[in-house]
Design goal:
Elements: H1 2-5, H2 19-38, E1 42-47, H3 50-60, H4 78-84, E2 88-89, E3 95-100, H5 109-118, E4 124-125, H6 130-134, E5 147-148, H7 157-169, H8 175-187, H9 192-202
Helix pairs in contact: 2-3, 3-5, 7-9
């Protein structure tokens, strides 16, 4: 279904495949992406998930003699980190953007350790909220825990002021209340500019 509906290359290694196959597929994808970038292509890799990739490496890597909490061998994190860290813009070349999902709140100490190793290493974090999904509130995004680093490089002062005012104004609200307010605002506006102007009026920004 993904291959038929997505305008891009889909490379998969299903859950019933051995971990060696997961590792091999990920390495193949990364090398393919690098070659395209060298040919001045802008490449986006969607990885689902960095957690499962790290788990696979943990099963196949030769033991290093050390073990982190949750049974994670530190050596197992080297290649997943190299995969995620391959994202970059190349001078006189293309760019590689990597969007990877990570599993959290699974009850697995291993998953927590893997997440902590990657937390804060990306330029953007988008946190999904299971409770919102259960209430059928979509997109099920936890606005307060999501954000973009160095967003001042991407937005105008007007946009930044409105976003920061929105975050301050709803700091005490829960994720569901914030998303419902944002959904209502999105329905009433036709563009991001209209949304920003509306937020500026609500929060009385100059």
């Amino acid at each position: 279904d993904m291959q038929r509906s997505v305008n891009g290359e889909v490379v998969a290694s299903t859950f019933d495949e051995p971990p060696e196959n997961h590792v091999k597929v990920s390495e193949m994808v990364l090398e393919r992406a690098k070659r395209l970038v060298e040919h001045k292509k802008d490449v986006v890799v969607l990885l689902d998930s960095i957690t499962r990739l790290a788990r696979a490496h943990n099963l196949v890597v030769p033991p290093s003699g050390r073990t982190l909490s949750g049974g994670v061998d530190p050596a197992a994190l080297h290649k997943p980190k190299r995969f995620f860290g391959a994202a970059r813009k190349i001078e006189e070349g293309g760019s590689l953007t990597i969007l990877a999902t990570a599993l959290i709140e699974t009850g697995s100490r291993m998953d927590e350790v893997i997440f902590e190793e990657f937390k804060g290493t990306g330029n953007m974090e988008l946190v999904l909220d299971r409770k919102l999904a259960e209430k059928r509130i979509f997109p099920a995004i936890d606005i307060k825990r999501s954000g973009t680093r160095r967003e001042e490089l991407l937005m105008s002062k007007e946009e930044l002021d409105a976003i920061w005012a929105f975050r301050r104004g709803f700091a005490q609200q829960n994720a569901a209340e914030i998303m419902e307010v944002l959904q209502d605002a999105l329905k009433k506006t036709r563009s991001n500019r209209d949304l920003i102007r509306g937020m500026s009026k609500v929060f009385q920004l100059d």
